[in-house]
Every structure is written in structure tokens, then in C-alpha cells.
Amino acid sequence: MNKSVCIIGAGLSGLTCGARLAKAGFDVIVIEENTQPGGLLSVTRIGNEYLELVPHHLRKSDKALLALTRDMKVSGKIEWFDSTWYGRAAHRKVGYFTEGFVCLTRSLMQEITDNGGRFMFSETVTEIQRTEDGRYNTVCIMSDSTVHNHVTDIVIFTGSTRTFSNVAHGLPIDMDMRDSIMDITYTASITTLLIFKKKYSEVYYQSANIPDDLPFSRIVNHSNVFGPRGYGGNVVYLTGECLVSDPIWIEDDATIMSDFFAGFRHLFPVARKSDIKAWRVTKTRYAGFGKYPPQDLTCPLEGLYVCASALTKHATTEEPANRMDPTVALANDICAKIIEKNSIEQDTISDSIVTPITGSEDASSEGDLSYEKAR
Ligand SMILES: Cc1cc2nc3c(=O)[nH]c(=O)nc-3n(C[C@H](O)[C@H](O)[C@H](O)COP(=O)(O)OP(=O)(O)OC[C@H]3O[C@@H](n4cnc5c(N)ncnc54)[C@H](O)[C@@H]3O)c2cc1C
Q1: Which string of DSSP letters, residue by residue, matches 215-230?
Q2: What whole-number distance in Å separates Cα of residue 288 and Cα of residue 18?
Q3: Left (φ > 0), alpha (ψ -120 to 50) or beta: where does 206 sit?
Q4: What is the DSSP letter of 300?
Q5: Smallest Cα–Cα separation from 257: which of 233, 281, 240, 278?
Q6: Phi/psi zone of residue 359: left (φ > 0), alpha (ψ -120 to 50 degrees), beta?
Q7: Is 240 in the pocket of ligand 1 (CB under 6 A)?
Q8: Per-residue pLDDT in tens (0 to 9) along the chain, 375 residues
Q9: CB of 30 closer than 8 Å to CB of 14
């Protein structure tokens, strides 16, 4: 029988794991607390286009991610552009899908469902339990407070390590490992997406010369590079890091937008509020992390995997960065381990279920019997 896998989260990690494992013959179920897939790659519809709520682009060096786009047959939809960064003509190539990142999300979902996988949206995982027979019970709560249980052989958690610690609180995870997981700290981020009638800058990406007292630290003028497309205006993202204890985190969207716009106007005094055609504020609770953990924390128990961006690298002095490429590489790694382990187990099971087809009454001595693997 196929092994079953419960994947928690339908962001890039969860969808990559789902696509890889469903294709390899696992019985996959993906659980997502939001109503739509994508996680940080979630989109909003503007005119006939889908636009990410937080800015994303591809790089030529994104090896694992670009390989995934080829596997999912969407690499032909990537366009590469020269971009101007920090006010200098850096000619850094940045890539974007002609239809937005939603085409990657969709093709990953298609791969999962084509191979028999299922999705459950609007289900929040509150606990992962161990069953008496060594499997896992993923307990989910729906918006109407009904509870769903999903019992599977394997669980892959793709949310933050903080959330993992909460939902895995009852599992017999080694204390040192639990402490190391708890040591990972996150910063939040707030992105205000503005669609302006006008263009105020030629730069694609600006993080320099933004005063510290402004609520954002990055400006991404999306339309400067990827064109006006069907958005009906110039798309500008303003993104700032914060802590959830900062007062801005609990402000309402309209106040945040006004604060961000005031900051933007400080840099571009000609900007007028009446030039804004549309706006949207997105809060990301687990956006960045402090440091990579010193050891591999991706498999705290047999059959239980954590595929979180914060665990993409360990034992490295590199600056931690939340990026899609290492996220996909980690998902690939975890799936390769699961597939390899499962095929070894299958071989062991096949070897142990043997049927004697010839032999004498006294079959104790080796060589007297011929065996055939049970099929
Ligand atoms: C502002 C910003 C800009 C970025 N720009 C870029 C860029 O230009 N290029 C780049 O390479 N990378 C970029 N990144 C990083 C990129 O977005 C991430 O690396 C990638 O999307 C992570 O995917 P993920 O699936 O691991 O996590 P997520 O996208 O966070 O997905 C996790 C999913 O799990 C779900 N979930 C969590 N807990 C539960 C639960 N208890 N029950 C059910 N579901 C749950 C969540 O709802 C979510 O959908 C950016 C990140 C940010 C914050």
C-alpha cells in the first residue's frame, strides 16, 4: 500500500513536497489554513492579472527553483529583465513569470491532483499527535470550530518553526532539538502595495537612502521592470520589517497605508494621495529570521519533517535570507530522503514476505529452499 503523507502548508515548500511525493506514488494530502494556496506567494487579482501581495522576483542563480519551473513546464513563461538597483544601473537580471508566480503555484497544484493528491483549505493544524501504531494524527480546526483528524504515515510541516513548536508540543522530541527549534527567532514584515497613476522613480529596487524613521526600508517599483501589464497603473511595493510587539503591527490597514504613503511622500514630494488607484496592506508574521541553526533540525522524529525556510541552511556563516531557491532545495532534499527511505523499507518488506515454493519437510538447512519474493 502507498505510504500516506500529510503536508501542512500550501506555500512553495508544501506544494513542492506535494508535487514530488505525489509523483513518486505517495498518498498526499495538503492542509492549508488560508482559503488560497501560495503562502508568501499569495496573489490578488487586479484587472485580468494576478499580482503577488508581497514583491517577488527570480534570479539567474536560483538553481533549484529554476529546475522546478522546468519540471512544472512553466520555465517558458519566465521573462528576464535588466533592473536598476539602489539608484545605480546594476543591470542585475531579474525574472518574472508573464502570468505572475500564480502559474507556478497552479502547475504544482495540478501535479499534486493529477497524481491523486488532495487539498484541504481553511483548516488550521492545532496539534500533531503520535498514534499507538506509530503513525501521526494531524488535528485541524475549521472556521466553524469543527475538528478534522488526518492520520498518515508521514507529516511534513512547512509553516514557521515557532508554529511547529506549538503544534508538536506533545511529541517526544529530544529536548536539545526542541530548544534549538525554539531558539530560532523571527521578524515580521508589513508590505503596502500601491498602484499609482504616475511613475515617481526609474529605480526598480531601493533600500539605500531610506531614513530609519520611515515605516518601510525597501521600495520595489514593480512596473518599472515588469511593465504596466494589465494592472491599470504603476505597481509600487513598500516593505518594512518590524516586531509583533511594535505598535504598527496592530494598527488597522488604513492607518498603515497612510503612514507608508507619508513616508513615500517624504522621498517623492510630488506624490499625491489622489494618484493612488488602489492599495493593499499585507502583514507577514514570519518573514525573516535571525540566524541559521547550528545543526540539522529538519527531522525531529522518524516520519516527521520540518521544511521551514528558517532551516534551509545550518552550520553556515552566511547571512540568513528567506528566499525561494533554498526553500525549494530543502523541499527536494527532504522528499529525496523520504522516497529513498520508503523504497528501502519496501524492499525490506518484500524480502521478509517470502513464500516457499519448493522444499522438503526438513527445510531447516539453507539451500534446501527456493524462495520467491511475494508480489
Ligand atoms: C517581503 C518578502 C519578499 C520576498 N521576496 C522574495 C524574492 O523576491 N525572491 C525570493 O526568492 N524569495 C523571496 N521571499 C521569500 C519567499 O517568499 C519564501 O522563501 C517562500 O515563499 C517560502 O515558502 P514556504 O512555503 O516555505 O512558506 P510560506 O509561503 O510561509 O508557506 C507556509 C504555509 O503554511 C501555512 N500554515 C502555517 N501554519 C499552518 C497551520 N498551523 N495550519 C495550516 N497551515 C499552516 C501558511 O498559511 C502558509 O500558506 C520574500 C519573502 C518576503 C517576506
Answers
A1: S-SEEEEHHHHH--TT
A2: 24
A3: beta
A4: S
A5: 281
A6: left
A7: no
A8: 789 999 999 999 999 999 999 999 999 999 999 999 999 999 999 888 999 999 999 999 999 999 999 999 999 999 999 888 876 666 678 999 999 999 999 999 999 999 999 999 999 999 999 999 999 999 999 988 999 999 999 999 999 999 999 999 999 999 999 999 999 999 999 999 999 999 999 899 999 889 999 999 999 999 999 988 889 999 999 999 999 999 999 999 999 999 999 999 999 999 999 999 999 999 999 999 999 999 999 999 999 999 999 999 998 888 899 999 999 999 999 999 999 998 877 666 566 554 444 444 343 333 333 323 322
A9: yes
Cβ contact 31:122 at 8 Å? no
Cα–Cα distances (Å) from 76 to 24, 60, 66, 71, 95, in that order, read: 25, 14, 11, 11, 11
Q: Which positions ≥6 away from 329 have C-beta within 8 Å?
A: 63, 64, 312
The domains located in the chain, with CATH, are 4-80+96-185+292-347 (3.50.50.60), 186-288 (3.90.660.10)
Best residue for ligand 1 mutational test, from 125, 286, 324 (most atoms within 8 Å of Cβ): 324
Distance 311 CA to ligand 1 centre (A): 13
Judged by DSSP in three states, 110 sits in helix
Name the pairing type of β-strands 276-289 and 186-196: antiparallel
**Atom in ligand 1 nearest the alpha carbon of residue 167:** 41
Q: Which one, of 3, 342, 345, 20, lies nearest residue 158 by Cα?
A: 20
